[in-house]
C-alpha cells in the first residue's frame, strides 16, 4: 500500500509517452515470442516491428535517464540531501543514489538505470492492470462487491482512513483480490533459461540451455462466480 507513493512523486507528472512506450514494448515482446521468424535478432531488427521496438526502448530509456538526471541534480544541493535523509520514508531512487558497496563505491550510471527501468516498469504496469482487472471483477460480480463493501465498512466504523492494521482484517476483500489476480494475472508468463537438464514425472525432459515459459494457472480452481468456495492461495 505504501510502495507506490515512494516511487511515484517525481515520476508521475509526465506526459504519457513512457506509458505508451511500455504498452508498445509489452505487445511487441509478446508478438516476437509468438513469431518464430522474429526469434533471430538480425531479421527482427530489419522488420517494422523490430524498428518500433527499438524506438519504444529509446523512449523508455530516455524517460528513466531524465528521472535519474533530475534526481542527481537535486541531490547536489547538500541541504536538500540532508532534508531527504531525515524523511520517514526515503523514495526508491534516493536509496539507490545513496547506496554504496563495502568499499564505498556508488552504483554506476548503467546499474542505476537498470534498477530504475526494472522498478518503474514493474511498479506501474503490474499494479495498474491488477487494479483495473479487480475493478472489472467487482463490477461483474456485484454480490461480491457488496460483501467487500460491508466488510470494509464494518472494519472502518467511523474511521475515515484505512490503517495498516486494518488490512489484515479484510479477509474477504483479500480473497477477492487474490482471485482476481489468479483469473487475470498481471504477469501471466515468466521465463527461465535452464542451467541444467530437468526431468518430469511423466518421463519427459528438457535439456540445459533451453528457455522455458511458465504460464500462470487460470483454470484449475473454481472461478469467481463460486466465490463462496473460492480458493485460498
Ligand atoms: C500486482 C502487482 C504485482 C505483480 C502481480 C507482480 C508480479 C511479479 C512476478 C510474477 C515476478 C517474477 C518474474 C519472474 O520470476 O520472472 C515479479 C518480479 C519483480 N517485481 Fe513484481 N509484481 C507486482 C508489483 C510489483 C511492484 C509494485 C514492484 C516495484 C515497485 C515490483 C518489482 C518487481 C521486481 C524488481 C521484480 C524482479 C525482477 C527481476 O529480478 O527480473 N513488482 N513481479
UniProtKB/TrEMBL annotation:
**InterPro entries in the record:** Cyt_P450, Cyt_P450_E_grp-I, Cyt_P450_sf, Cytochrome_P450_Monoox
Source species of the chain: Erinaceus europaeus
**The organism's place on the tree of life at top rank:** Eukaryota
Q: Where is the composition biased (Polar residues)?
A: 213-233
Q: Where is region (Disordered) located? A: 209-233
Give the protein family: Belongs to the cytochrome P450 family.
Return any one Pfam family short name: p450
What's the protein name?
A: Cytochrome P450 4B1-like
- Keywords, alphabetical: Heme, Iron, Metal-binding
